[in-house]
Amino acid sequence: MITMQFFTLSHMIDSDSPVHIALKKPEIVQSSSISGGDGYNSYIVTLENHTGTHVDAPGHFLEGGRIISDYSTSELLFKSPMILDVPKKQNELIELKDIIEMDFNGVNCIFFRTGFELFREKFPDKYLTENPGISPDVVLWIRKNFPDVRCLGIDSISISGYKKPELGEKAHLNAFEVYENMGEPLLLIEDMKLNNVKNEDLGIIIVVPWYIGGVDSAPCMVLGIKK
C-alpha cells in the first residue's frame, strides 16, 4: 500500500499575521464559549482577502479579469512545480539576469525562494517594508518563453517590492494581462512558507483557496504531495 506524504507551503493565519501596510490587520474574536456558559465555541474572523499566504487572480488588477472562484480544481493543481533559490536582500528584485540561464521546460509552477521569509516572525516591519519582489521583465520573459507555466510564488509579502510600487504594479499586470502566444494569465501566490522545503520532495502542488464568491483573490492552503 502506497502512503502519500503531505506538507504545506502556507503560513497559518492569526491575529499577528503580517499583512501589506495598506491592509487592515486580521481580527479574531471569540463570540461564544463553552467556558463562558454557551453551548458551543464560535469565533468572528475579520480579515482582508490578501491576508497570509494567498493567491492573486487576474481580477486583482484587471477589471473584468478572472477571480479566484472562477478557477476549477484542475487549474489549481500543478504536477510539475519547482522551487528556484534566488537569494535576495532587502529591497532587491529578482532580475532577468538571475534566471536567464534557467530552462523551465516541463515546469508549470515556479516558487521563488529568496530567503526573506526568515524576517517574517522576528522582524515583521522589515518583512513588510523592505521585501524583495519580482521584476516585470522576469514575469514577461517567463510568459514569452515558457507558456506552460501557470503560477508563480514567492516567500515575501508580495511580488511587489514595497519601495518600488510602480514596478510591482507592472509585474502584476504582466502576469495577468491576456497576451497572444503566451499561454494563460498567471496565478500569483504571495507570502509563502518555503524555508524548510526540499526541491526534490516536490511532487504535486494543490492550491486550495477560500471558496468565496465575488472576491478577486483569497487566502489559500498550498498543499504539497511528496514525491
Task: Describe, in plain words, how this protein is organized in 3D.
By secondary structure, this protein is of the alpha/beta class. The protein has one domain: Glucose Oxidase, domain 1 (3-Layer(bba) Sandwich), CATH 3.50.30.50. It is built from five helices and 13 strands. The protein has helices spanning 96-99, 119-122, 124-129, 136-145, 165-176; strands spanning 6-8, 27-32, 42-46, 54-56, 77-78, 81-85, 93-94, 109-113, 133-134, 151-154, 187-190, 202-209, 218-226. The longest helix has 12 residues, at 165-176. The radius of gyration is 18 Å and the shape is globular. The chain starts with 5 loop residues before the first strand and ends with a strand.
CATH fold assignment: Glucose Oxidase, domain 1
Output the helix-strand order. EEEEEEEHEHHEHEHEEE
- Shape descriptor reads globular
Q: For this structure, what is the CATH homologous superfamily?
A: Putative cyclase
Topology, number of strands: 13
Radius of gyration: 18 Å
Which terms would index this structure?
alpha/beta; two-stranded antiparallel ribbon; 5 helices
List the helices and strands and how they pair.
Layout: E1 6-8, E2 27-32, E3 42-46, E4 54-56, E5 77-78, E6 81-85, E7 93-94, H1 96-99, E8 109-113, H2 119-122, H3 124-129, E9 133-134, H4 136-145, E10 151-154, H5 165-176, E11 187-190, E12 202-209, E13 218-226
Parallel strand pairs: 6-8, 7-9, 8-10, 10-11
Antiparallel strand pairs: 1-13, 2-3, 4-11, 4-13, 5-12, 12-13
Helix pairs in contact: 4-5
Short précis:
By secondary structure, the protein is an alpha/beta fold. It has 5 helices and 13 strands. Strand 12 (202-209) and strand 13 form a beta hairpin.
